Amino acid sequence: MRHATAPKIPDGFHHRGRRERLLQKIHETHGGGLVLMPTAPEMFRNRDTLYPYRPESYFHYLSGFPEPEAVLALTCDSAGKTRHILFCREKNPEREIWDGFRVGPGAASEMFAFDETFPISALNEQLPALVMNQSALLTPMGLYSDWDSTITRLLGALRTQARSGHTPPACIVDVRDVLDRMRMIKDDCEIALMRHAAAISAQAHVRAMRFARPGHFEYQVEAELQHEFMMHGAQTAYPSVVASAENACVLHYVENRRKINAGDLLLMDAGCEYQNYASDITRTFPVGRRFSAAQKDIYELVLAAQRACFDALKPGAPFRAFHDTAERVLTQGMIDLKLIKGPLDTALETGSFKRFYMHRAGHWLGLDVHDAGQYRRGEHDKTPTLLEPGMVLTVEPGCYIRADDDIPAAFHNIGVRIEDDVLITKDGIDILTSAAPKNVEEVEALCTQ
Ligand code: GLY
Ligand code: MN
Ligand code: MN
């Protein structure tokens, strides 16, 4: 198989462009202000061993700066003049021998397009001057308790100086609200990275489908997915679900310990993250055999629901529309298969279908697998967000039938989900993950060859 080619992404200036757009919005709304954005802290796994480090997504979106212990300070004055400042770790030859390279404030300004850079050790000393007399402070609140304390202490200290004519910002806003709106529309760099992440994940699913055979353990299939991700410099975007037979009916099953039997359905929900951008694919297939008649009935129902969802996606459509479509198609199918009672409108109204389909049909996708972004238009406008070109979302209908006494045995332990990643374009949609096969014939060919 041809290997996915990594996209060419320009240097730190596209992050600067996002910072400028953020500041412009702040100028329009607040007449200027200060943004303070910390990155994620490192986390201990045990004793002196850390979890692999991942920068905070909003921080990454605005800077591309990969190291912990860093804070962005962005200002915009009433005339619209901006300053981009980064606080980061200093170079440290001793620590760099143990832990690896540090960019340091010297090189960071050019590499990441900042006007000024300072050692992180200077942050507390510089914050009062940065915050003083700003009309608005925009910072995440309730994200990191240490950062909340830093801001509380800072504002408290500034208030004690009010008599000397300095005022703390009258308006304090969580910066994530405006950033969420920006992150909902992916720019060209983001789309290129997401396309690449999607291509890697599709290849990983093909590899795992070819590998999975009766007698394998679920974790061995997971290892195949992981192999393909890592061979492309990517990592898992979320813990992979590799769920055979009854495990496929557990939506967030991640133990992946069971031995797979011939004819079991195997549900794999696995996607990689490439340069911090996620993909999210689910495929379901029979191991070592063709689909049984009942497995095929459910599989084709879910596939039909997904196709109907795609038809409901276009610019201007409300986000909810494809979710309603998924519920309608799946519910009619359950009635036809005598899993639930009709008529359709009653089943939809009473929610009887939720016994077999209990989740949403999709979510925003981007830096986070369940990405930032509103599903409704606003605090005072509860109508659904309308789709726009540049938005990326998943489409993931499913059907999960447990081995209950009132269900015919042929349907027991059938759990099917089919999930793809979709970019809304100006004319309709672009399915980023279509290289992962899902037609019955293609899937059976891969699983039995
Ligand atoms: N993989 C997480 C989800 O599908 O939402
Ligand atoms: Mn998903
Ligand atoms: Mn998923």
Task: Give a structural overview.
By secondary structure, the chain is α+β, with helices and mostly antiparallel strands. 36% of the residues lie in helices and 17% in strands. It contains 13 helices and 19 strands. The chain has helices at residues 13-30, 57-63, 93-99, 104-111, 123-131, 145-159, 176-184, 188-211, 218-231, 293-311, 320-336, 344-350, 440-448, and strands at 33-38, 44-46, 49-50, 71-76, 82-88, 116-119, 136-138, 171-173, 235-236, 241-244, 265-270, 272-274, 277-278, 281-286, 392-395, 398-401, 414-417, 420-424, 429-431. The strands form six sheets. The protein has a six-stranded mixed beta sheet, with helices on both faces. A three-stranded antiparallel beta sheet has the order 9-12-13. The chain is globular. The relative contact order is 0.11. The model has no long low-confidence stretch (mean pLDDT 95). The structure holds glycine and manganese (II) ion (MN) (2 copies). One manganese (II) ion (MN) binds next to loops. Residues 280, 363, 394, 396, 419 line the site of one manganese (II) ion.
